[in-house]
Amino acid sequence: MESVAVLSHIVVDEVFDSEHRLLATEVGGAGAYAAAGASLAGEAGSTLLVSGAGREDKALLEEWCTRRQISTTGLFEVGVHSPRTRIRYFSDGEREETPVFGLEHFESHTPLPRHIPDQARPLSGVYLFHDHERSYWEEVEAFARTFTGPILWEISLDACRIEHRAEVAELMAVVDILSINETEARALSGASRLEGAIAWLQRSATTVLLRRGSQGSLVLAGGAVHVVGTAPTAAVDPTGGGNSYTGAFLACYARSGDLALASRTAAAAASAIVAAPGAPEIDDRSRRRVALAARSVTFESR
Asked: CB of 293 within 8 A of CB of 224?
């Protein structure tokens, strides 16, 4: 069985309310949610999460992954603690995130292609979540020269500034798929309107997943714009919706090569994730529900 490798952080979140009261301690991070989306779109054990993990938290993180049928062979030990994020929600619905152990500690747990275990191969696709840092991309570029499957980059907010536009354009040529939300696309392109952001993104031959939250998404590929709807759901917690959409798209696309099927499946997986606080446990029954919901998602080309 081929695997999809998700290279991004899994962290421990401490969630506080506006009065500084601790509400919950739970597993989160872009890597965790992308892997959950990929697991919903794949088979049991076909998603490999590659991330640094502190030895005191590793058992907790492994159990979290196991309950979602995500392979843990890619979790490598770094120090005592895993990255920990303090999330504070305010009365107006906004939130603030602070790395408890600092940015340097967080970055020390960043996964690179060298961390993909040999026993996990062959791989059908690779997911990356990062900014435009040069040293990171030097290793990714070397890996890309030998890897034949699709490489997907979910760009981080830090890279989405107009002053980084030329660098990002160069890095888009390294990957096969870019995932970005509408706000990030406008900031990166410098366009005030969505149409301008689309025009800038289409200068690249890279397929682009342009996420628009409750408005669905656009897939830019081969000069065409495909409009993707959403799966019916009552959104409870938007956390991880974009990550899970992206992970599910890659898992489905790497297996099928079908752009429409991957887009519909991604929308359905994201809807399943945001329907409850945190990522739900995953089994074949939940995968069947996602596959069924994907049939109702619209996919129109223009």
From this structure: no
* pLDDT value, residue 93: 62
Predicted pLDDT of residue 195: 97
Q: What is the pLDDT of residues 116-155, one digit of tens each?
A: 998 887 899 999 999 999 999 999 999 999 999 999 999 9
Rounded Cα gap, residues 85 and 97, in angstroms: 6
- Residue 19: the pLDDT is 82
CA–CA distance, 138 with 154 (Å, rounded to integer): 17
Question: Are residues 127 and 250 in contact, defined by beta-carbon separation less than 8 angstroms?
Answer: yes
pTM above 0.85, yes or no: yes
Stretch 18-43: mean pLDDT: 92
**pLDDT, average across residues 9-37:** 90
Place of tokens 């009261």: 21
How far apart CA 165 and CA 181 sit, in angstroms, is 15
HEC string of the chain equals CCEEEEECCCEEEEEECCCCCEEEEEEECHHHHHHHHHHHHCCCCCEEEEEEECCCCHHHHHHHHHCCCCECCCEEECCCCCCEEEEEECCCCCEEEEECCCHHHHHCCCCCHHHCCHHHCCEEEEEEEECCCHHHHHHHHHHHCCCCCCEEEEECHHHCCHHHHHHHHHHHCCCCEEEEEHHHHHHHHCCCCHHHHHHHHCCCCCEEEEECHHHCEEEEECCEEEEECCCCCCCCCCCCHHHHHHHHHHHHHHHHCCHHHHHHHHHHHHHHHHCCCCCCCCCHHHHHHHHHHHCCCCEEEC
- For the chain, the average pLDDT equals 94
Class (C level, CATH) for 3-301: alpha beta
Confidence of residue 22 (pLDDT cuts 50, 70, 90): confident
**C-alpha to C-alpha distance for 249 and 217, rounded to whole angstroms:** 12
